[in-house]
């Protein structure tokens, strides 16, 4: 929104700063961070009053989780509010990729909010039917993938870009749309499965978002793409502002979500942020790199899939409990130990993902 101030610039004044994506990204980060610090406590108090007993806790989970009874959920509202306010304030609102990612984020956020509301109001862990959530997610992803394919340059539209292999594209035609849908929906649900311990999901999301933001800035800059040999996707640089706002809002939330959590992110946040990561990857043509950067989420999702399929076939379990972070809890790892080690893994995977930009 504030980008319009550049109209008053003659190129040598303070208004010229608003032309620079890096300046606006920095301001978006601080805006979202301050927003989180200011409104975090009032929102948590409001959620606690409205929800009463808070998020229902699974009685078949680790016994240590029973101490979390009464903790309010829907803390994702804090992240999404900070993210929306900051992005609308600092991003160029004539950029289609910004609206695609915002649309996916808040559409999935609505699905998550409905699920959280159902859980809290009924005081059970089932919430909205998984089939309904999945179908709604596919519909949102369909629109987003089709829109991204439409706005991509003609030489990239409906093509799959491969990391490491320079200038290599796989033409997918209309199959790119269902592929993009799988990326977005898969990312949303993988992050949702990861959100099971205090602070476990938000930091890896922030790390992945920060990494994708750097990638978006690079692929949106012709000089950088020429130097690195990656595909140029004009306009995606603005997504750095979105990811910076997400990082700032995430830090504001983590202040209250750090163990012991004063509030849970809930599906409101996890589905929205996971969908955002998938949408950014589709917009920047880095869908495969997302699987590396978000490798922790992939492992969490695979652990559930493997557990379910193996149990149906043999009646036995591969893991003590799925998702895999609960497996380590059952083995006696302390919650902070699991969380911090998973953060370290996320950071390593992010660095590997960034390395693919140079390995050509």
Q: Descriptors for this entry?
A:
single chain, 360 residues, mainly alpha, two-stranded antiparallel sheet, 13 helices, 2 strands, globular
Detail the topology: elements first, then pairings:
Blueprint: H1 21-51, H2 76-90, H3 96-122, H4 130-151, E1 159-161, E2 169-171, H5 176-194, H6 202-219, H7 222-228, H8 239-257, H9 266-283, H10 287-293, H11 295-314, H12 324-330, H13 335-355
Antiparallel strand pairs: 1-2
Helix pairs in contact: 1-2, 1-8, 2-3, 2-8, 2-9, 3-4, 3-9, 4-5, 4-9, 5-9, 5-11, 6-8, 6-9, 6-13, 9-10, 10-11, 10-13
Walkthrough of the structure:
The chain is mainly α. The protein has one domain (2-355). It contains 13 helices and two strands; from the N terminus they run ααααββααααααααα. The protein has helices at 21-51, 76-90, 96-122, 130-151, 176-194, 202-219, 222-228, 239-257, 266-283, 287-293, 295-314, 324-330, 335-355; strands spanning 159-161, 169-171. It has a two-stranded antiparallel sheet. Strand 1 and strand 2 (169-171) form a beta hairpin. Helix 5 (176-194) runs antiparallel to helix 9 (266-283). The longest helix has 31 residues, at 21-51. The chain is globular. The two termini are 37 Å apart.
């Amino acid at each position: 929104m504030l980008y319009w101030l550049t109209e008053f610039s003659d190129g040598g004044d303070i208004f010229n700063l608003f032309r620079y994506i890096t300046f606006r990204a920095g301001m978006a980060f601080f805006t979202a961070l301050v927003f989180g610090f200011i409104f975090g406590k009032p929102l948590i108090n409001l959620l606690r009053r409205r929800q009463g007993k808070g998020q229902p806790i699974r009685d078949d989970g680790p016994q240590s989780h029973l101490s979390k009874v009464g903790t309010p959920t829907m803390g994702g509202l804090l992240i999404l509010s900070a993210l929306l306010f900051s992005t609308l304030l600092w991003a160029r609102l004539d950029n289609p990729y910004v609206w695609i990612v915002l649309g996916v984020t808040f559409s999935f956020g609505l699905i998550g909010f409905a699920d959280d509301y159902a859980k809290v109001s009924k005081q059970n862990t089932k919430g909205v039917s998984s089939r309904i959530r999945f179908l709604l997610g596919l519909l949102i992803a369909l629109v987003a993938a089709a829109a991204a394919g439409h706005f991509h340059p003609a030489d990239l539209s409906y093509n799959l870009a491969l990391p490491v292999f320079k200038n290599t594209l796989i033409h997918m035609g209309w199959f790119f749309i269902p592929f993009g849908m799988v990326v977005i929906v898969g990312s949303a649900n993988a992050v949702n499965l990861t959100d099971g311990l205090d602070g476990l999901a938000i930091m890896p999301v922030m790390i992945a978002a920060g990494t994708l933001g750097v990638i978006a800035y690079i692929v949106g800059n012709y000089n950088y793409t020429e130097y690195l040999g990656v595909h140029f996707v004009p306009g995606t640089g603005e997504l750095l502002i979105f990811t910076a706002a997400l990082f700032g809002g995430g830090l504001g939330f983590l202040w209250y979500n750090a163990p012991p959590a004063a509030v849970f992110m809930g599906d409101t946040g996890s589905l929205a942020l996971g969908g955002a990561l998938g949408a950014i990857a589709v917009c920047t043509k880095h869908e495969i790199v997302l699987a590396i950067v978000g490798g922790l989420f992939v492992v969490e999702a695979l652990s559930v899939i493997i557990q379910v399929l193996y149990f149906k076939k043999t009646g036995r379990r591969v893991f003590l409990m799925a998702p895999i972070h609960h497996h380590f809890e059952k083995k006696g790892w302390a919650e902070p130990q699991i969380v911090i080690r998973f953060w370290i893994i996320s950071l390593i995977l992010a660095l590997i993902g960034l390395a693919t930009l140079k390995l050509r």
